[in-house]
Design brief:
Rossmann fold; alpha/beta; about 40% helix; globular; eight-stranded mixed β-sheet
Length: about 400
């Protein structure tokens, strides 16, 4: 079987991208499986099993080309498809040249993994602005103004326009949808995404759990530096906690366009001596081992939270927000602590609780490890994905036979 994986960002900079490359690596180990990947990056690149087109930098350009057809890119993709000859195409995020990519691949069996709530909300936040609570249905015209969490009205209504156009094509062309959590699967089903199925991401479950290197009062954030990840809220709350415990330290593992502003914010809050920026790290074992707990302060609806799962596999407690899947992964006061990212002082209080009670942090971490090992099975996940590929190709062949005139 020949499989093509497509993701708009062909760089390992976030949870969706990590999953994308992890899936590719696992599929390549399957006998008789040929796996290719296609995406966008800072510079174009061609390899034996990879095609990277030059990506868009401007946010406005990305929005515009989501719904405007790009003929040159279309023919480039079609040319590569003729060489690859995929039996099935597995899409992930396609937020660059969306309509063009779908047009180029529409004749192939298509499956998509939905990595965030952009499938059910134009801003992907899926939060109502009046009470800052999750929307129970996803975007509807009756709650249109409630989803306006960011951007000015002109941009917001343009996003609604692109959202509706793309969703129509998405539902028409893609035959099966995967979602990394039961909650997102439920939202997709409510919004009439046919064949939406819960398929968890992979986790590395061969860890040596140890508390020998743990540093009391030390915490870790892992992820993309973006406002939606709650990074500003984290810094403000950490500054509050430092006022009561001057031994607290925090490592920030990640990168993003707002990094320079974050560094300025750290200085402004007077906590520069307590914060370490270490950039994007492919290997986080050491950092998980050293921390008392991992902080996941996201302010938007999280589809899964791969960082939470990784922390749990390392038997580390997690302080997570009450938005989306953290509520599913974290059992409050059993496998971690839940916080409200819109309530001042809540995160600071939870940081101090674990900093002052290492025994509790260890207990939560052990419980979390047991839970994540119970709910995620890598082999079962991979087998289901492959079976789905096979089902789609069989159905495609049957449809072609039915449409083909008999001789």
């Amino acid at each position: 079987m020949r499989v093509l994986l497509i993701n708009d960002n062909h760089m390992p900079i976030g949870g969706a991208e990590q999953y994308f490359f992890d899936l590719k690596a696992r599929l390549k180990k399957v006998p008789d499986m040929k796996v290719f990947s296609l995406g966008f990056g800072p510079q174009p690149y061609r390899g034996d099993d990879v095609i990277v087109f030059k990506g868009l930098r401007s946010k406005i350009a990305k929005w515009l080309w989501q719904i405007v057809f790009h003929p040159i890119l279309y023919f480039k993709i079609r040319r590569h498809l003729k060489k690859i000859r995929p039996d099935v195409i597995h899409i992930h995020n396609i937020k660059q040249y969306s309509i063009t990519v779908l047009a180029a691949i529409k004749s192939y069996p298509l499956v998509q993994t939905i990595h965030d709530y952009s499938a059910v909300c134009p801003t992907a936040y899926n939060i109502h602005k009046d009470n800052l609570q999750p929307c129970s249905t996803g975007f509807k015209w009756r709650c249109c103004l409630q989803h306006h969490m960011k951007y000015n009205f002109l941009v917001y209504f343009f996003l609604i326009f692109t959202f509706l156009i793309f969703k129509k094509q998405q539902k028409k062309l893609i035959k099966k949808f995967f979602a990394p959590s039961p909650l997102l699967t439920d939202y997709l089903t409510k919004n009439h995404f046919i064949n939406a199925t819960y398929v968890p991401p992979f986790i590395n479950n061969h860890r040596q759990h140890s508390f020998d290197e743990i540093k009391p009062h030390h915490f870790l954030f892992v992820g993309q530096f973006g406002a939606h990840k709650g990074i500003y809220f984290l810094l403000e709350e950490f500054a509050l906690a430092v006022m009561k415990n001057n031994r607290l330290t925090l490592t920030l593992a990640g990168t993003g366009s707002i990094e320079n502003h974050l560094r300025q914010q750290v200085k402004k809050l007077g906590i520069a001596a307590h914060i370490s920026f270490i950039g994007w790290q492919n290997h986080l074992e050491k950092y998980y081992q050293e921390c008392t707990a991992v902080i996941f302060p996201s302010i938007w609806m999280e589809a899964f939270g791969l960082v939470i799962a990784e922390a749990m596999m390392h038997a580390r407690a997690v302080i997570g927000s009450n938005r989306g899947s953290p509520l599913w992964l974290i059992d409050d006061k059993e496998t971690g602590l839940i916080i409200n990212p819109y309530q001042s002082g809540d995160l600071a209080e939870k940081i101090l609780v674990l900093a002052n009670d290492t025994a509790l942090a260890k207990k939560l971490g052990k419980n979390g490890c047991a839970k994540i090992e119970r709910i995620i099975d890598n082999d079962r996940t991979l087998n289901y994905i492959i079976e789905s590929y096979q089902e789609l190709t069989i159905k495609q062949n049957i449809d072609l036979e039915i449409r083909s005139p008999r001789k």
